[in-house]
Amino acid sequence: MDTATHQTQAGTPVPPPRPSAAGQKRAARGATHLGDRIFLGLSRGSGVLLLLIMAAIAVFLTYRASLAIGRDHGNFLTTFEWNTNQDPPVFGIAVLAYGTVVSSVIAMVLAVPVAVAIALFLTHYAPRRLSGPIAYVIDLLAAVPSIVYGLWGALILVPHMNGLFGWLDDHLGWTGIFSWEGGAPRSMLTVGILLAIMILPIVTNVSREVFRQVPRMHEEAALALGATRWEVIRMAVLPFGRSGVISASMLGLGRALGETMAVATVLSPTFDIKASLLDPGGGTFAQNIAGKFSEATEFGRDALIASGLVLFVITLLVNGAARMIIARRKEYSGAAA
Amino acid sequence: MSHAAIAGTRTERDRSSLHGARLPRWSPYAIALGAAALAVLVGTLAGLHSRIQWGLIAAALFVLGLYGASARVEGLRRAKDRLATSLVWAAFLLAVVPLVSLIWTTLTCGVKVLDVHFLTHSMGVVADTEPGGGIYHAIVGSLQQVGLATLIGAPIGVLTAIYLVEYGRGRLARAVTFFVDVMTGIPSIVAGLFILSLMLILKMQPFGFAGSLALAILMMPVVVRSTEEMLKLVPNELREASLALGVPKWRTILKVVLPTSIGGITTGVVLAVARIAGETAPVMLLVFGNPFINNNPFEGAQASLPLYIYQQYANSAGSGAAYDRAWAASLTLIAFVMLLNLGARGIARWKAPRTGR
What are the boundaries of the region Disordered (chain A) (predicted)? Predict the structure, then answer.
């Protein structure tokens, strides 16, 4: 109706008589209100729906988890066992929590320095003609599905780890962490390395964005004082980007914590905690769910849901912390810029 | 301009000159060559078989050599700068190795069995350990599940973004923004477990649409984020001009704001589709996998491309034929995801909003 008015106005140079225009206006306003109300309702409804989904995830996972934990004859937090099919059932998340944390920490320790270096390479070192295409390739790599990383990890990375594991055992075996009994290298360290490769693109991308936002003036001021390129980075770029790098790493950590398929294909799981990172064994939350799901009874599935709930809470905390750091940084970089 | 002057100070090599002593431009290359030669020498003498070890020795020698030479001639500050430069380059090259290996292996192993027969047949009458069979059933399943997920996830995501940018004020909008951020980090397997808990309550068996629901949950926050960014790029003058002409707000959004940013929104949706197309974990819990062709996503277990890769790997008992199929399916999946990515970038470039800057 509204467009109709505009068309007639555009078509005829003479403005339409007043009374009818006022009438149309009133009619249009009624339609406007209705249309606006519907549209606002739809869009606000979608937002509310998102909140409801989040709430529903928490509620339903908690409900099913409580069914399982109530019948657990072990301690859910400290038992080193996962036997949901026996009577009475005994299961606990201690091994999974340990494995999830250890593999993710290895991934972080390996990936973050390399990712920061690549981000610096792209923003400050690479020839400009190179940095565009490389950034593009890294974007594409972030899109490679995790199952493909898993397949590559299991069939290519694992055989290549033998050399590294032998070397670590020879030279660092005395620490206990790097001793190796010679089993297939499907261990926490291999998982950590694969996870590091997988989170490299996202940590690099976020860090690169942060380094790009460093005020040009800060860098030029440092250069004008005679700083070398490394001194510019150390004095102007890294301090500015520190919180951004921290939140980038936490986003990467969130990915590593919840990664399922890459761990499920590479790790050979056992339900105990190995002192050595090189000996196969251990497990993570997501890997355990994927591995135990197919032979689980309904009760077993509830138990897996309970472990998933713990994973959910951990990732929520990590991601929430990362977002809060980013948000706070935004506030004062906005004031400074 | 003042080449002569600079050249003059350089030839004097005077402590008070503008430039301190510098290593000649060719010195890094010379040191690299020397390091490589030395590494080959050490490698052959020590009898190291792995070429990776040779490379590592060469890299270490290069970094140390350049640092030493620079520290001697140019002083410690420049030496540190050179050290940082070589370490940054080394980190970049180190990261490239696995990534190139991944792409290369997928390409070379994938093309072995990837042909028309592979794309048009299912695994219905082929045992997992035997050669033959294909991924038609998985492609059908993937397309249906991802398509349905997009039908649910994209509109909700876009509408939420519209709410946040065009209407959102106050506590509700802030809560939605925060939880969208948090939702981005939900592990895919948790989304799968959520739908699974519903299915356990309703006593349902696995079917394709259940997977779509989990994928939609994973897709929504990604779409919201990218759409929000795009809507924020639309200049306010456009909205004000439209409102000043008496156009109601909802028509302004539909006819002015959305058409201006449609390129970016489409790009975001396509990238989100590319992301969920590779998700395995929720599909494994909810759709279960099926060697036969099932064209009905609302009843019975279905296959899916990422799940097919996993099952070929896990159920094959080390059979080469199954690994070949897994690689070929990986190649298909990567090709699909990359095409979506390239397409998205194409759309973004073609329909980029003209902000007048």
Answer: 1-27
